Amino acid sequence: MKEPAGVATIGYEGATPAGLVAALKQAGVVTLVDVRAIANSRRPGFAKRALSAAMAEAGIGYVHLPALGTPASGRQAARSGKPEVMRRIFGAHLAGTEPQAALAELRDLAARQPVCLLCLEADPKNCHRTLVAQALEMPIRHLHPA
Prior knowledge:
Elements: E1 7-11, H1 17-27, E2 31-34, H2 48-58, E3 61-64, H3 72-79, H4 83-94, H5 97-112, E4 115-119, H6 128-135, E5 140-142
Parallel strand pairs: 1-4, 1-5, 2-3, 2-4
């Protein structure tokens, strides 16, 4: 049986859309998986519609799995500098039926092609995307925008 290739993660904090695309292309990512609960951003180019269009233009697929996003209380904990609280809240959320179905969809996609999980946080240690990647039980590599 072929071993899964793994999953990449990336945060767009401090990045430009062009820098994000460059990092994804360099890593050979086929599909960007947006794991934000709400795919909006005050940063130009990172809201769902603009990001999806930029990925299409770059030849990279885009999938939004909002069920794998952090609930509002977890986002508040992260903004308050309490990553351990965010991890606890997100862990409980991830055990739910809808997040588990989205995780199964992601696992299937990641087994077929190189994917990268996207969220805002630059440091993967403080972001829920690392918890999502760990739940896949595949090798993980963290990318950084160019």
